[in-house]
Amino acid sequence: MRFPSLLVTLSAVTLAYSQHCTQPRQRQEWRTLNDDQKHAYLDAVVCLQNLTSNGYHDGAKSRFDDFVATHQALSDEIHKTGQFLAWHRYFMKVWEDALRSECGWQGSLSYWNWSIDVDAGEFDKSPVFDPDTGFGGNGADQAHKNAGPFNNLTSLPDWDPQAQTGGGCVKGGPFAHYTLNIGPGTLKREHCLTRAFNPSTFSGITGQHVHDTLAQYPFESFRLKLEGDRHTSGWDTHDGGHLAVGGEMSNVYSSPNDVLFYAHHAMLDSVWAQWQSANSTDRMYQISGPSSVNDDTKQVTLDFMLPMTGLSDDVPVRNVMDTKGGFLCYIYV
Ligand SMILES: *[C@@H]1O[C@H](CO)[C@@H](O)[C@H](O)[C@H]1NC(C)=O
Ligand SMILES: *[C@@H]1O[C@H](CO)[C@@H](O)[C@H](O)[C@H]1NC(C)=O
Ligand SMILES: *[C@@H]1O[C@H](CO)[C@@H](O)[C@H](O)[C@H]1NC(C)=O
Ligand SMILES: *[C@@H]1O[C@H](CO)[C@@H](O)[C@H](O)[C@H]1NC(C)=O
Ligand SMILES: [Cu+2]
Fold first, then answer.
1. Taking every annotated instance into account, which residue ranges of this chain make up the domain Tyrosinase copper-binding (predicted)?
2. In the chain, pLDDT over 90 holds for what percent of residues?
């Protein structure tokens, strides 16, 4: 009897699963997409920039601005807190869904594995910066580099402003001439997309650093290591990646103005998914951390509602813990 009952159990499990997430979308590394796939994504983003705002946030003119405005409004809750990974995972789902449903895109979000570029000593030559099949390169050289409030929120003892290059408006690529309306920082005014590459934070995004991050346990240590702990010096993957690109990306409020934000955060999300799958029974539903920077007393739990300020419904953290759980349906390849 052992064999048939095992079969029944297996098929019941498979069935339950298949009703939720049969064909997970595959999130690939940016450089593994072909040129048509790259252009399809970039075109879909331009489409979102052309669509009119849903009107939930003052100052937002386009659907693209809506995403930046939501992130800007929530910045003090969703960074350096237990919400960080779950919130950004959900935000990327909303982004991916909007590109598909409103702009006819058929693809799946892709990620930027910066460790490939940094470990090769060729950050500037990364395919993500290609003017045709990427997001454009560094900002034009200018003396004033517009360092964003990542600098403002933390003491950043190891950040070297002198190491920055560029600093002005991004010169090439599909977003060079787009006028941003949300930001920079907490402001809402028209400006261009800036970048200021800064090698002084590359140490946070090496393959070795990802390896060290994955070795952390439990979730509390992992999330602090991945995002960067305000109380320790040195770079971690989240802040290191934002500050390596610099300019708008270095701004904790308005960084989604740089479309690379999504490729960077998808990479962080893939590291989290990898950490979870190292022992799913134990790790899949581990979550912890304060719910806001200003209030250490309320902890994030699986029932904690992730806010989305009208961009989409607020949902409980539980919904986004498993990337194949049904509410979400994707894997990293
Ligand atoms: C976006 O709008 C611009 C200017 O109106 C237009 O040239 C372009 O074709 C539009 N692109 C997309 C993808 O909708
Ligand atoms: C990123 O690239 C490194 C170096 O090739 C590789 O070891 C690692 O598995 C990659 N990580 C992801 C998430 O793709
Ligand atoms: C720096 O932080 C202060 C206080 O949190 C804020 O008022 C200010 O707008 C921030 N600066 C920038 C450039 O965003
Ligand atoms: C996974 O976690 C469970 C629960 O903590 C534990 O019993 C099990 O030994 C772990 N498996 C591995 C392969 O580490
Ligand atoms: Cu963020």
1. 79-96
2. 78
